Amino acid sequence: MSHSKTKHEPPTPSTLPGQNAPIEVIDMHTGGEPLRIITSGYPAILGDDILAKRRYAREHLDHVRRFLMFEPRGHYDMYGAILVKPSLPGADLAVLFIHNEGYSTMCGHAIIALGRYAVDYGLVKAVEPVTEVHIECPCGMVRAEVEVMNGQSRKVRFSSVPSFMFARDLALCLPDGRPFKTDIAYGGAFYAILDAGQFGLPISSSVTNKLTELADAVCQVVTDAVTLSHPDHDDLAFLYGAILTDGKDAFGDTPTRNICIFADSQVDRSPTGSGVSARLAIQHAKGLIKIGQTRRFESIVGSGFEGAVASTTTCGPHKAVIASVKGLAHYSGKASLWFEEEDDVGRGFILR
Asked: Do the Cβ atoms of 321 and 162 come closer than 8 Å?
């Protein structure tokens, strides 16, 4: 992979936007999961391709991520999307995803929101009844199909990058000795995916803290035990989180609920678009879902995505699927964000 070569000096940690040149954002949510779309004012992100831009942002501009995601402007579970110049032919827009820990490679709930945003704000020309939006992500190109009626955007369906099961029914143990089995799958990011019933836990908001602690422990065990790899790029080969399910993979058309804990113990309020893609890959590999069959995937707060296997393909040595995921995003506001000198707390902090 080529890397951008420049004499550009990265900004110092004290370089944050002032009132005369703020960062402009539009806030949305998809099934309760926030998305802060940075529309202007972000410092230049250098790199010849999207993964190079992701590395540059991580190495040189991380103080701006904290400024936008952390308190007092954000919160522990805030999520963001930085619009950058596309590098892939045919891309209508390109995006870097940010959260409490860093920079993810794929985000389905963000794609659903960005599909509406691209149509509503003229990044693509609205076409009824469906407008296609091609979004370049760190994991590759993702195609969104935005329903448009009477000039208004509605639900969004996206076709993800090839998703596949990486490991099946791994038998492992938590540090306290409790055994469990987990699958590992890729849906734009890698997840450990397992039935929470193995630990006697329901997928309920009443036990969110217990589920989060369990997911963190599972992630640490899997990271220590398994070496991940991705055929396209080493930058994609890391465990992003754990998805705890209600164990209803084999229940046909019955809705199934899950909770996704990712990054630094961040809890997704939506069913998780990349996670649904990974779950569909597992279900198809195990013969539990047919091509074209639709399942409803619900989140910890009861919001839902429709998921289906659109087709089969390969990803390097892996049998893979193209997942189709559909949901609805809503606007929640817009803001201009800036920093006042000597406001050290205003650089960003987290309490939890």
From this structure: yes
- Is it true that domain 23-159+331-339 has CATH number 3.30.70.3090? no
Q: Which of 107, 137, 139, 219 is catalytic?
A: 107
Q: Quick check: 301 and 127 in contact, CB under 8 A?
A: no
Question: Any alpha helices (H) in 261-319, and if so which ranges?
Answer: 273-285
CA–CA separation, 64 vs 61, rounded Å? 6
Residue 152: CB partners within 8 Å, gap ≥ 6?
Answer: none
Pairing of strands 239-245, 23-30: unpaired
Q: How many residues in total does the chain contain?
A: 352
The token duo for 213 is 């602690």
DSSP result, 191-218: EEEEEGGGGT--S-GGGHHHHHHHHHHH
Q: Confirm whether 315 is a catalytic residue.
A: no
Question: Which overall architecture, per CATH, does domain 163-327 show?
Answer: Roll (3.10)
**Maximum pairwise Cα distance, the chain:** 59
Per-residue pLDDT tens listing for the chain (352 residues): 332 323 334 444 558 999 999 999 999 999 999 999 999 999 999 999 999 999 999 999 999 999 999 999 999 999 999 999 999 999 999 999 999 999 999 999 999 999 999 999 999 999 999 999 999 999 999 999 999 999 899 999 999 999 999 999 999 999 999 999 999 999 999 999 999 999 999 999 999 999 999 999 999 999 999 999 999 999 999 999 999 999 999 887 899 999 999 999 999 999 999 999 999 999 999 999 999 999 999 999 999 999 999 999 999 999 999 999 999 999 999 999 999 998 989 999 998 7
Delimiting residues of CATH 3.10.310.10 domain(s) in the chain? 23-159+331-339, 163-327
- Whole-model pTM? 0.93
In angstroms, the CA 31 to CA 258 distance is 13
Alpha-carbon distance 312 to 295, whole Å? 17
Q: Which of 281, 56, 79, 96 has its CA nearest to residue 185?
A: 281
CA-wise closest residue to 104 among 220, 244, 266: 266
How many angstroms separate the CA atoms of 160 and 115, rounded? Answer: 13
Q: How many CA atoms lie within 13 A of 233 on its CB side?
A: 14
